[in-house]
Amino acid sequence: MREREKLKISFPDWPAERERPSAETLRTLAASAGYTLETELSFENGAALAGADVAVLCRPESLETAAPLLDRERQLLVYLAEECRGLRCPEAERRETARREWELCHAAHLILSPRGADADALCRCYGAEPEKLLPLPDPEDGESAAAGELLALLRQRFREKVEHDRPFFSVVVPSYERHDSLERLLSQLTVQSYGDFEVIVVDQSAAIWTGWAAFPKLELVYHHIDTPGAVHARNVGIRLARGHVVAFTDDDCIPEMDWLRSARPYFDREEVAGLEGRVFADVYESTRYRVVTNAAVEGVGFMTANLFARRDVLLSLGGFDENFDHPHFREDTELGWRLLGRGEVPYAPEAAVLHPSALRREGRDSLAERNKFFVHDALLLQKDPERFLHLFLAEGHYRESAYWDFFRKGMDRHGLPLSEAAALAERSGIPDEYIPEWLKESLRKRRETAT
């Protein structure tokens, strides 16, 4: 029996004419979970909760019999006691103990209620001060963002570890102000020929998406966050995932019907850490359209439009590097390179995703906006100079002066010395006409020093 862990149970508004569950029954259930049940049981609202290390609130109208209901709550208590104390999202780590207790209370409530359980549960762990029952978090309260992620994490881990409900794939989709495109993607996922998967949408849009009810065939986890950034959103998705393998795609993509089925056999081999699928476009006229494809950069480019990785490997790597956020770019390439250090990452052309070509108009798809993304190439060069050289030559962006403008800004942002940029220009062998003046001077000094 654990010392100092006391379980108290309260049955508010219990009808006088209804038989009460016996203290012996409840004490037996508590003991099976390793808790000491306080002798005094309360049938008044919240009266028995004060002073408990763990407390449960049960509503009598939901009780067919005491034991079956309490058995589920016992599982929840065991899970919270053994797992939740060590489970934190980065935002929650910075919160004080009182906020942590508040989060755990509502985590227990949300674990039970959305899964069809008839009971509301409010649980507290060590150090709690449960003099009063706290309200559910206000979705309009910006401070509840960290609590919201923790609640979602606890729900997902409870399903995985206690209910043993784990799909093979978790499809992670970050979304930002494109709910129409998101719904098109979800419609396509509904008709996937392989069905053992969940979909996790991490939405950063200003307005909460309300269209989830139109997709009853999908096992859909929708999570709204206030923190912008697709890289951060993907990391949230990794933490929420229950699947053995995480499949990444974007809210403006259209996977082919056999996308997941084609990817599945590759993961029968333990040495496979990840998988790169084919990304193709519907229009290849790059003057007027933003064309996204991984043709010619397979094995080095790596795009989250179509990328798979084992979840345990992703967690051990720490997910995506969020230094590649704002604007989000190259985080997928850099992750792919780190995956190669953990195992094989084969290319699977049969696992295909269409990335529709968008007109280069004003806004996020304009050429001016997309050029800003190259600010992260300086960081990518620092991460792996050899692989970056391969990618640099394969993509050929160096032919555009705007590329070098943002590469230079990225050098300042990420602390890349001029000498490393000069080394890149020298090793690449690109014609002098493509080298900007500021880099030519550094390159000249490098050559003089070498001679």
Description of the molecule:
- With about 450 residues, this protein is of the alpha/beta class.
- The protein folds into 3 domains: about 5-160; about 165-360, Alpha-Beta Complex (Spore Coat Polysaccharide Biosynthesis Protein SpsA, Chain A); about 360-450.
- Helices cover about 40% and strands about 15% of the residues.
- The chain contains 16 helices and 13 strands.
- The strands form 3 sheets. Strands 6-5-4-7-11-9-12-8 form an 8-stranded mixed β-sheet. Strands 2-1-3 form a 3-stranded parallel β-sheet, covered by helices on one side. Strands 10-13 form a two-stranded antiparallel ribbon.
- β4 (about 170-175), α6 (about 180-190) and β5 (about 195-205) form a beta-alpha-beta unit.
- α4 (about 95-110) packs across α5 (about 145-160).
- The longest helix has 18 residues, at about 65-85.
Give the CA-CA distance, first to last residue: 77 Å
Radius of gyration: 27 Å
Q: Uncertain spans, ≥5 residues at pLDDT below 50?
A: 1-5, 39-74, 80-147
The percentage of residues in β strands lies in 5-15%
